[in-house]
Structure formats: C-alpha cells, structure tokens
Specification:
Layout lengths: L11 E2 L13 E5 L1 H11 L3 E3 L4 E20 L2 E18 L6 E11 L10 E4 L4 H32 L19 E3 L24 E10 L3 H9 L1 H8 L4 E2 L6 E4 L4 E9 L3 E8 L8 E9 L4 E11 L3 H20 L4 E2 L1
Parallel strand pairs: 1-2, 5-8
Antiparallel strand pairs: 2-4, 3-4, 4-5, 5-6, 6-7, 9-15, 9-16, 10-11, 11-12, 12-13, 13-14, 14-15
Helix pairs in contact: 1-2, 3-4
Length: 339
C-alpha cells in the first residue's frame, strides 16, 4: 500500500477496485452535490403546512447553492454538506380572498448545525394585518415543516451515500459497525484526543507551509487574549476547550479534533504552538506562528504554519478562516478583513 501522501496529491481514492483500498485505509470520496440539489427540490415541492387557520404550502425551491460530499476515512463515514436555501411559500387565511406569498431563507444548512438550531427566516411580500397573521402562522407551524423536510434530506444523504463506501476488510468487519461522523472541526464530535507524546517512526510525509495575513478591528491584546484565555476561546469555538497558555501547556479544541501545546508566548505580539488535526498521521505536528502587530486603528495578524501535510493544505487554510477568524469576528465583533 502506498505511503501517506504518495501517489494522488490528495491521497483520495475514487471508484477504485476493492483490492486497492485495503481495510478502507485510503480516503474515498463521492460528490453528493447533484443528488442533494435534486433531493432538496423534491422535498420542498408543494409541501402543505397543516393548520386550521390558513391554507399554506411551500411551493418550490428558489435558490439552492452549496455542496455536499460523502467520505470514507479509515473505515469511518464522514458526511459534509453546506447549503444556502431560499424557498417560496404561498397561503391565505381561512375565509380570506387574497393569496399571499413570501420566502423562507436558510442561510447555513450544514453538518455543523443541528436541525433544531437552524436559522430559519420567514418573510412575506405584503405588509398589512392579514399578512402579519399569515406570517405568524408560518413562524409557529411552517418552521417545523421545514425542519422535518431537512431531516429527511440528511437521513437520505447518509443512506444513499453509505452504499459502497465501506469496502470488505480482511477480517470481514461489517459496515454496520462503522461510525458515522461529520467533518472538519465539528465541536459536536466526541473524540478521544491524540496524545502529544505519541510518535510514529519511518513515516514519510510531504509537507508545505501556509502563510496568510489578516486585519482585525481590535487591539493586539484583545486578539492575543481571544486565543489564550479559556473563557474567550470557549466563546468563539462554542464548545468545551482545554487551554493552558504557558510554555509546553497543552490545548484541545473542537471536541478533540485540534490538539497541541504552546511553545512560545510573548504577550501581546506573538504565539507559537505545535498544532495538529486529529486526522493527520499519528504523531505528526505542524508549527503555528502567529505574529500580532497593532497599528493605529487595527491589528495585523500574520499566520505562518510549517509542516502542514501537502494534501491537507487547502482544507487547513479554509478551516482557519471559517473556524477561527470568522468565528472570532462573529463572537467579538472584530470586523475582520481578509487580504
């Protein structure tokens, strides 16, 4: 079997014979986007909202942008999906003569958000007493219908794209025993953290360096604190964290998906740490250096991360943006501008 990182640049196996993916070790991936778009359109085509007060239906999908994929990593199924949806709906009050219309927006349907926590926005085209009554009914009844249909999409995605993803192993372990996980730094995954001291000898890994520069509307001290104070790290990661900001102090974020330890702390201008993503080869760590430079009206942060597995560079760069910088902007109002 090829060593990690050799062969295909991303070390992904797609539609390969069983013998080439021994014990499901390789990362196999299926594009679930076209299927997802059709399924979502089907699920929201003329769906009735049951209520005694009005005749309401969700008529069609007006917008469906995003992507979805199913992955098999070391015998674990990982589903990724991220969609922005806009639905059309129509309705009229019982005994009313006028049919009114509106829209339902779901800005962030993803594996990171539980169906019960989805942001579902209801709007209506008119602005009068009858419209407001109808809109209120949609808030109380329509949202439940939307959540039910989205739940059907998610379960359908997992059933449809589990087929053929887990290949027979030498010991004939059945797919029923394989866990289904979500992807990325999902805080809801309960994983056992990888020990910092673990090592793997003789593993050849092709690595690269990531370097990015960002601007934040905050002081250097505020930014430094956001990455080193437990209560602030908890605020933007939205989950339990471990963070001991001293030399060789360990940290664990996003349900154990990100672990490491601090190597150098120079308040408020510099943070250096060993950092790894759980799915990387065992014992492999990158080095993250954050240089924090306060200007007159903003702070410039330079991130340099060495030792990143080449196959994971793009994903890692994107996850820094999504799970760190964007999350910090939302949590603390830093108003980040990416350069």
């Amino acid at each position: 079997m090829a060593k990690w990182g050799e062969g295909d640049p991303r070390w992904i196996v797609e539609e390969r014979p069983d013998a080439t993916n021994v014990n499901n070790w390789h990362w196999t991936e299926k594009n679930a986007s076209p299927w997802s778009q059709e399924k979502i359109k089907e699920l929201f085509n003329n769906i009735k909202v049951n209520t005694d007060e009005a005749d309401i239906k969700i008529s069609e999908v007006d917008k469906c942008t995003g992507e979805a994929s199913a992955n098999n990593r070391k015998g674990k199924l990982i589903f990724f999906y991220e969609w922005e949806l806009t639905l059309k709906w129509t309705g009229k009050l019982k005994g009313g003569d006028t049919e009114l219309s509106g829209k339902i927006k779901i800005p962030n349907l993803s594996e990171e958000n539980d169906v019960t926590d989805l942001d579902i926005q209801i709007s209506i085209d008119e602005n009068d007493d009858e419209s407001e009554k109808l809109k209120k009914i949609m808030f109380t009844k329509g949202k439940d219908v939307v959540r039910d249909q989205i739940g059907k999409y998610i379960s359908g995605l997992k059933v449809e794209f589990s087929k053929g993803m887990i290949l027979p192993k030498k010991d004939e372990v059945k797919p029923d025993n394989v866990k289904t996980l979500t992807s990325g730094f999902n805080k809801k995954i309960n994983m056992t953290p990888v020990a910092i001291e673990s090592k793997q000898i003789g593993l050849k890994i092709d690595t690269t360096t990531i370097k990015t520069v960002h601007k934040f509307q905050c002081t250097a001290q505020e930014f430094y604190d956001a990455l080193t104070r437990v209560e602030l790290v908890t605020a933007f990661t939205r989950g339990h964290v471990k963070c001991d900001p001293v030399k060789d102090g360990k940290f664990e974020l996003f349900g154990g998906n990100i672990v490491g330890k601090f190597k150098e702390l120079v308040p408020p201008s510099k943070i250096v740490k060993l950092w790894r993503y759980k799915q990387w080869p065992e014992g492999h760590y990158s080095t993250v250096t954050l240089s924090i430079d306060q200007k007159n009206d903003h702070t410039v942060v330079t991130l340099e991360q060495t030792g990143v597995p080449t196959a994971e560079a793009d994903v890692t760069r994107g996850n820094w943006d999504r799970y760190y910088w964007d999350a910090m902007k939302q949590a603390f109002g830093f108003g980040a501008f990416f350069t």
